[in-house]
Amino acid sequence: MTFIVLDLEYNHIDNRNKLLSNTLHLNRPSYMTDEVLQIGAVKLDENLKHISSFKRYIKPQFLVTLNKRVQDLIQIDMNYIKTNGVKFKRAVYEFMNFIGENLKDVVIITWGYSDWIILNKNFEANKIKNINLNDAYYIDLQRVVMNKEGIKIDPSLKGIAEKYNISACRDKYHDAYYDAVITKSILQKIGIDDLYKYNYFISFKKAKDINKSSDESLLKNEVNKEILCDGCRCKAKEIDSIKFYNYNRRDFRMNKLFKCTGCNTYIYKTYIYDKQKKGLMITEKKAECNNMADVDRMLEKFYAIKNIK
Predict the structure, then answer these.
(1) Cα separation, 82 vs 36, whole angstroms
(2) Does residue 4 sit in helix, strand or coil?
(3) In 3D, which of 51, 144, 59 has the Cα closest to residue 99?
(4) In sequence order, which residues have a C-beta less than 8 Å from that of residue 169 and are 6 or more positions away?
(5) What are the extents of the domains in the chain?
(6) pLDDT of 15-71, one tens digit each?
(7) Residues in contact with 307: Cβ distance below 8 Å, sequence separation at least 6, in sequence order
(8) Across the chain, where does the E strand assignment appear?
(9) Where is the Exonuclease domain (predicted)?
(10) What is the mean pLDDT of residues 269-273?
């Protein structure tokens, strides 16, 4: 058994990238709103001892200018990435060689679930079909820490590193490799026993037992948790929901729409139940009330799904 601690840095779409993708005919899929710029990873053995490291910059194909907020975070300009980067497919094949051949003996660790979603979207946009990372076992270390420490609001990597007195790479946040190193250090502080003890999974007897009438009661401890806005810390009120439905052969999903009672930010949560791994993951998107274009897109997406289901 080997552990791969994975982290990504990625660019987020903005109006300039939308314009350029159309002008330059970049054939950007509509779902490609986050393009991977850097992959960083650390490989550990079954005792969480360091084996090797991986770091690659990736030349963008769809989002060719840096979102200003992203550039402020990563402190690297696009020229550096284009000069030092490789194509996404090459980076992926090198990463798979780094992981090893038998994915069923691999546990992939990330901080939060968004990197996993974005990586799969980038696989799809780049038409990589002969690699299935879902064969590996996946653990969201952020959720493990929340369960272990009794934390209700998603904590930052920096905040937990400080809580656990981890000083390595303290000044290098938002670099995929160094964030992976920090995540590795948190994992080593937690240890293997607590990693599995506090892993974020809810088990069912049989996947086929899940249906629209029973899911909400089975998962009520998770889907009915009080939601707080991480911006103003006020309670978010649920304004609509879509009960669990078959999303594909692998997933059941539930969607919930919230609105903060303080700052009026909209929060869109998706609860994803993996039939194969029998685990629940939660994703979250936000739209601030002063950006009506984002709010409209969020509501349009939510009600498009609701009208189908």
Answers:
(1) 13
(2) strand
(3) 51
(4) 175, 178, 179, 181, 182
(5) 2-197, 207-308
(6) 888 888 888 888 888 888 999 999 999 999 999 999 999 999 999 999 988 888 888
(7) none
(8) 2-12, 34-44, 50-57, 106-110, 137-140, 227-228, 235-246, 251-260, 266-274, 279-287
(9) 2-196
(10) 84
Q: How do 106-110 and 137-140 pair as beta strands?
A: parallel
Round to whole Å and give the CA distance between 43 and 140.
16
Radius of gyration of the chain measured on its C-alpha atoms: 20
User: 110 burial class (0-12, 13-18, 19+ CB within 10 angstroms)?
Assistant: buried
Identify the bridge partners of residue 36 per DSSP, sorted by sequence position: 10
Amino acid at position 281, single letter: M
Looking at residue 105, its amino acid is: D
* Residue 162 Ramachandran class (φ > 0 left, ψ -120 to 50 alpha, else beta): alpha
